[in-house]
Amino acid sequence: MKLTEQEEQILAGAEGEARQIALKNMVEYAEALGADSLLDVDCVSIGFPARLPTSLNAGQEFDSFEDSLCYSALATDKKVSFREMKAPKVVVNNASMTREWLDYLGVEDPALYACVEEMDRFYREHGANNTCTCAPYLLGNLPLKGAHIVTGESSQVIFENSVLGARTNCEGDIAISCAAIVGKIPNCGLHLDENRKGTHLVKVKKIPDTTFGWDLMGYWIGKHVKLGIPVLEIDIETIGVEQYKGLGAAMTTAGQIDMFHVIGHTPEAATREMAFSGNSPKEVLVYGEEQEAEIRKMLDWSEEKNVDLVLLGCPHYSSFQVQEVAKLLKNQKCTAKLVIMTAPATIAQARINGDAQIIEEAGGLLTASCPPMVAIWPRNLNVIATDSAKMAHYVPSTQPFKIHAGSMEACIDAAISGKWHD
Ligand code: F3S
What we know:
By secondary structure, the chain is an alpha/beta fold. It contains 17 helices and 14 strands. Helices cover 41% and strands 14% of the residues. A five-stranded parallel beta sheet has the order 12-11-10-13-14, with helices on both faces. It has a four-stranded parallel beta sheet with strand order 8-7-6-9. Strands 3-2-4 form a three-stranded parallel beta sheet, with helices on one face. The longest helix has 17 residues, at 17-33. The model is unreliable at 51-58 (pLDDT under 50).
């Protein structure tokens, strides 16, 4: 490992014990990965894996948030004090517990309230930009081409690598926390040019006609490519942010894929030659009507027509998606529960636009909390409808719920009628 003079000084303790431990962890991690140096990071997206004295975390109780961080973020039992984080930009991308979610569920637990407040306090005092969203790129956290990013949210990883040309691997909690504290990450994987070349060619014959259609295509590509960097050849003028968001999230859910290229669209794929950069495609895949139908059937499988909960916004909805929902819900009332996951800043925007009021009057909830992440669901659920392939994939792996999956329009129809219409 080649360390800079500054890194040697941090290792010797010149910037305090927290940064010393964080850098020691990072050096060990880099060695395990075979990296020969560390990079200065431009932005770290954190969701610290803290354990607080709450009813949820019985058996893992700590006296303070900082003590919890020593254990779970720095992997040490020592009590060290955290100063400002060293990474130039630190964004909180945790779609975690919020008061609105607890209130919606009717949970009255002072320990959980304290947990929410304590996390917010910690981030405020340590200079983090607490966006509370798994899609911070929708809110101005827009790392551009070549920026070195650290995040563990897979949908953010694939979006920022592919659509923005920023560079990030999918990191675990301890690496992310240490990167935030010391501003370094191993120089390997998708931080390097040679690992960003296309590996599979996907010829798209069926251009999706809804945003959910992009999810279906992403899921099919992930399932078939499994591991690699797919290059999409598609005859289309432009692709929207929302479509890229769904495409990438689904692709990384069904496969172990952290990056894709779209020829003529994404920043490292102006041409097919650029996308492959000397690689020959390992395989040429064709995506058409039949492939779309196959994935639709796989994800939309409940035989029951009744729907108890419609869950939208995975990854978190953009402001324009919230507007679309409001248009569909105007002067309507929901029969089923309707939960729309989006950033607090987007909820504030929706209130300015009048969309939040329309959604709430119809009986819907806008929240930053993601039920699978916080692991607290409304009671008595049997069937869930969603417009996200990622959600349709993950929910049944932890919950006994049956799933319908379809477009936003189909989901809102189900929220209003309480039934799924094919
Ligand atoms: Fe975000 Fe939760 Fe989906 S964190 S990407 S809404 S599973």
